[in-house]
Amino acid sequence: MPREKQRDLKQDLYSRVDVYKLVPNLETCLQCGKCAGVCPVANLSPSYNPRVVINDILRGREDRWLKSEEIWRCFWCANCYTMCPMDIPYPMLMMQIRYLAIEKGYGLKYFFPFQRFAMRAMDDGLTFAPASPKGREKIGRIREDIGLSPWPEISEKAREEYKALFAMTGAADFLASISEEDEKPVHLMYLEGRITRARGKGN
Amino acid sequence: MQEARVIRPEERIRDIPERVFLFRSCTGSIEYPGTENAVKETLKALGVEAVMDPDQTCCSGYLLTCSAHKPELSLAVTARNLAIVEKKDLDVYTFCNGCFGYISELAHILLHNPAYLDMANGVVGKLGYKFEGKPKVFHVQELWYRMKDTISDKVVRPLAGLRVAAHNGCHYVARQYGILDDGGYPTFHEELFAAMGAEPVFYKERQLCCGYAVGRGFTHKEEMVQPHLYKKLKSAEQAGVELITTVCPGCNVALDREQPNINRRYGEAFKIPVIDLSQLIGLALGMPIRKLGFAANTTPLNGVLEKLGIGKETADG
Amino acid sequence: MGNRTKTAVVIGAGPAGIEAAIRISQAGFNSIIVEKEPELGGTLKQLCSSFPRWEDPRELLDRKILELQSCPAASIRKNTVVAEATSNGSGYVVKLSEVRTGKTDEVIADAVVLATGFELMDISIYGEYGYGIYPEVVHALEFEATLKEWKRGKGKPPKGVAIIKCVGSRDRSKGNPYCSKICCMYSAKQAGLVKEFFPDAKVYVFYMDYRAAGRQYEEFVREVIEQRHVRYVRGRPAKVLCEDGRLLVRAEDTLIGLPVEVVVDIVVLAPAVVPRPSTRRLAEMFGASTDEYGFIEPEPFNPVQASARTFFAGGCGFAVETPLALQQGAAAAANVIALFNLE
Q1: What is the pTM of this model?
Q2: Are residues B39 and B133 in the same domain?
Q3: CATH number at residue B45
Q4: Contact status, residue B6 vs residue B182, Cβ threshold 8 Å
Q5: Which of C123, C126, C170, C241 is the best residue to mutate to test the B interface, defined by the most B CB atoms within 10 Å of its own CB?
């Protein structure tokens, strides 16, 4: 990797990533590593490291993360946010990095399943309702058996308005605008297998 | 150190409410309807009326974090849902950590960013709603803890030394202020267990995430979520845990429905049933077993029910 | 005023207060040193060894106490606290109260030196570190007692010790945003001592930085790392867990970018240095102000002056190490002497 020249270090801070201004205090990061210490993903695949992500974003080097497999692994467990001594809302940063990646066409394979779910949710007013009639039947049986209505009570009005909100906020357009042709490949930043602690006992 | 991080239950919920708006959870109502039942029955037993509204939609938080929704949509959806609650002049109680985390976080963003509030009200205004920020957002676990002594008094099926472990999940203890217990080492669920006669178990990986949020259970199941859950379940098994409770249907799906897959993959024989904390409370307060809807659980509860002296014959309801 | 010799009341008999009282008395004025505990010495009494020269603090303390006792103009009041103070135009009428009996008496203070010292923050709010949950997780002063035990040849030898710095310092979330200054040095000292007593023990210090700004300080820390083989890991630990009776510390080694987990028997936490609650009360009594943390605010152009006739020294102004406490005590004394000479 070529040495970074002084003039290449971007100075516009991180507003490229934090478009929604949800992470005002990113520069308070002390790089202490508490987030990475508790991150379940970092503990399983160390090439993902929230602390390094923050550092790279502050120095304008987020490109390598946009093209990576790693950012799609974050669980959003928010343990980093719980532990952070500066209260940096890292999950909000991760959410926005993912939007940026999608915009540029990276990682779409991790987006398409949810694109489908979202389009169904738009009609159902609920999320993750099974699509198949058999699935719905099974749920209906269990619910009736315990004395509930066969399907969660959600009104026609609710469903219509939910769908209307998708149209009004541009969410429907967003979902429709991304297709498989836009996809660019993502790759792992490092080789797999660098796990420091073996699973199970011992070590 | 601005606002206090951990506050006493009486500060969080000063007076026991008479009526609350119960927020329907998508995953809860679909995957584990027994949880919804248990929450309603427990509220009734504690003298609290649960009001639901079919006009309420999904909180939209899950797909927001999966990058399928943009924040504008979720902010508008939250404004609309909370406007419905506001019109009833109630506070909103959820029984899903996910709903709780997303709604409270989004409401916080709306109320601290005038531009976003204007945008959201502008959109939902066209449908006839206006969000002013009055309803407070709670999770039922907070009410259960607040009424711990009342629950303890009403126990009719003491949990007979059952070894129960708490899975707190992530999105409640991740809040930075105004929560009931320390995110570093929460013990308030265990206090509830002890109040109902069970034996709380602290195992090493107790605070590990379930791994299912943000849809990683769909996209990265073999890669990340299964090795992760394996660590957690192994640690629970080694500590002799007989039952795990959750406060989030999402976590419940992860811990419950993945067990057979993990057993197959790793050659293990985990059979630790996973139920919602509200179902455990419902069980202790004498709810009919059938109504608790354990038929929806993948990992069967037979061992636990037997230990408590509730065989299939006594399953009333 | 006439021929009455001026008297300074020094509140607190740690190294700062003792030094102030000695110099004031040696200059020919009276000093009354008021100490709430039964013995003089403040926090210094609890320490095992010192930086940067591994000297025994007891030697320094005994010497200073002897010097104080040999000042005829110095009056030592142990087991005593300041109950009240009222201004009399040229000083204060101070009511002293004996802690055990409650008996009170009054003295005239023509000047006051506040030297109430510091204490350690309550770190039980850091549930992730297990303080108050696992008995083998201790804070720095509790560990000094363990070190003293080991020095005497008593106590159980550890196989592993982990020292975690910045617990409650440099923390805007649950703790205090400031740096507590002395922990980097005393943690190095503690780590070095464990290795001295038990060369085979595994000793880790988890740090974000190590601040060694002082004469011979950097060399001290490097000696601990290079000669005594203490492993310094750059990363603030995320969790302390318990398994099979031992403690696990989970952190990230940020210099190599990998999560690490170490297994030890004892975890020592270095809590933030905070002023004692009595400092704020006493400051108010004597017309001084304290900042949002309770440390005494100096007057604009005099770093040891708190108000017209009140000076301060030592930990009550901010975290400070022993030699600096002595320096500040002497500086406060100089101010008192100058004040008295001017009048």
Answers
A1: 0.90
A2: yes
A3: 1.20.1050.140
A4: yes
A5: C241
